[in-house]
Amino acid sequence: MKIFLDTANVDEIKKMCELGIVDGVTTNPTLVSKEKGKFKNLSELIGTICDVVKGPVSAEAISDDANGIVAEAEKFSKISNYVVVKVAMTTEGLKAVKILSKKGIKTNMTLIFSANQALLAAKAGANYVSPFIGRIDDTGHEGMQVIEDIQKIFSNYAFNTEIIVASIRHPLHVLEAAKIGADISTIPFNVLDKMLKHPLTDIGINKFKADFEKVKDAYKI
Ligand code: G3P
């Protein structure tokens, strides 16, 4: 499973990229709004993230109409070859994805809450779909079931569109996504940080250190 970081914070991205486990990044308007004042403009922020990640970086278009989305996507795509344009799942968004796929601009259809929406996004030529599983769980329905349904549909018809499990809230979401063989999980920094820690690891390290301390003079490397 590919791991994307779901953040626009460059410090967080640098920290996790140093570990060698990050394949890409997803941003959205809420995430970029948190970085206001740190960069000259959105292009500089997205360009900096692309330079760090050297993998797919999603930047979201905010226009409501297809022409506006396409115009934004063309600007985003000039920033870096790593840019993937996030387009919201609407009628105009679908039109825009079709146009962008013909132009060779990569797209990630976002705000997906049903398998049927994902099917339409794939038909339009989206490179990625982003079902928001945490927000589906919030409504009392099973987000991961939507991922399984999309996997089945994409496999039935051999779509190349990759599924990004998005709106991940905790490590169990990542575990479930990996168990069902999801293509990609986009994970917030705090969730990824929790995944690499375990209290028994810390207890184990401290015990090993204490035991070795008692005999270290006799056991020089
Ligand atoms: O990138 C979009 C998505 O991951 C949003 O997550 O937690 O705001 O539902 P959340």
Write up what this structure looks like.
52% of the residues lie in helices and 16% in strands. The chain is built from eleven helices and eight strands. The protein has helices at residues 10-18, 29-33, 42-53, 66-79, 91-103, 115-124, 133-138, 143-156, 171-179, 189-195, 199-215, and strands at residues 2-6, 24-26, 57-60, 83-88, 107-112, 128-131, 162-165, 184-187. It binds SN-glycerol-3-phosphate. The site of SN-glycerol-3-phosphate has 9 residues, from helix 7.
Brief characterization of the structure:
By secondary structure, this protein is of the alpha/beta class. The protein contains 11 helices and 8 strands. An 8-stranded parallel beta barrel has the order 1-2-3-4-5-6-7-8, surrounded by 7 helices.
CATH superfamily: Aldolase class I
Q: Enumerate the distinct ligands.
A: SN-glycerol-3-phosphate
- The top-level CATH class is Alpha Beta
Question: What's the gyration radius in Å?
Answer: 20 Å
Helix content: 40-55%
The main β sheet shows up as:
8 strands, parallel, barrel
Q: Based on DSSP secondary structure assignment, what is the total number of beta strands?
A: 8
Ends apart, CA distance between termini: 38 Å
Task: Determine the mean pLDDT.
Answer: 97
Which blocks of ≥5 consecutive residues have pLDDT under 50? none
Number of helices: 11
CATH architecture classification: Alpha-Beta Barrel
Structural class, judged by helices and strands?
alpha/beta
Count of folded domains = 1
Largest sheet, spatial ordering of strands: 1-2-3-4-5-6-7-8
Proportion of beta-strand residues: 15-25%
